[in-house]
Specification:
Radius of gyration: 27 Å
Number of helices: 1
Strand content: 25-35%
Distance between the termini: 70 Å
């Protein structure tokens, strides 16, 4: 025998359970979407950093006057370059630092450090990644000693 009024509370309970499960699924998806977006921005900032490292490496190989003579007492030189897309909007900036603090014997190592700043405002970038490479001067030119991404 079915009691009267039993079906309505059962349907309400089942509907509430489905609602809670749906909200949990939506919350999980929005968290995943936010993580995916942050990973994408970090990857773009990393590519900006790599572009700066390559720019500094090529300048070292091709330009005998790079880095320019420093002011007495300084052991590093920094420069930055802004990158734009095809419509002229700034995509980001890479900042390159050439550090020759250990360029004398016994180390003979030159450090290139490049930081990619994604976004049109350098003060509040969407993402930031840094790439560093240490080069040692050999008879055949510069050889890579160490490479790091952070």
């Amino acid at each position: 025998m079915i009691r009267k009024g039993f079906l309505l509370p059962a349907v309400l309970l089942l509907s509430t359970l489905l609602l809670v499960m749906g909200l949990a699924l939506l919350t999980s998806k929005s968290y995943q979407r936010r993580q995916l977006n942050e990973a994408q921005l970090a990857a773009q900032a990393l590519e900006l950093g790599r572009a700066g490292l390559e720019d500094g490496r090529v300048k070292l190989l091709k330009d005998p006057r790079f880095p320019p003579p420093s002011i007495w007492g300084h052991s590093s030189f920094s420069y930055s370059q802004s990158l734009t897309n095809s419509s002229g909007k700034q995509v980001g900036v890479f900042q390159v630092e050439v550090d020759w603090q250990y360029d004398r014997a016994p180390f003979e190592v030159l450090t290139l450090r490049s930081t990619g700043l994604l976004g049109d405002d350098v003060l509040t970038p969407l993402a930031t990644r840094t790439v560093q490479a240490d080069f040692q001067m050999t008879t055949k030119g510069w050889s890579l000693v160490r490479y790091e991404e952070y």
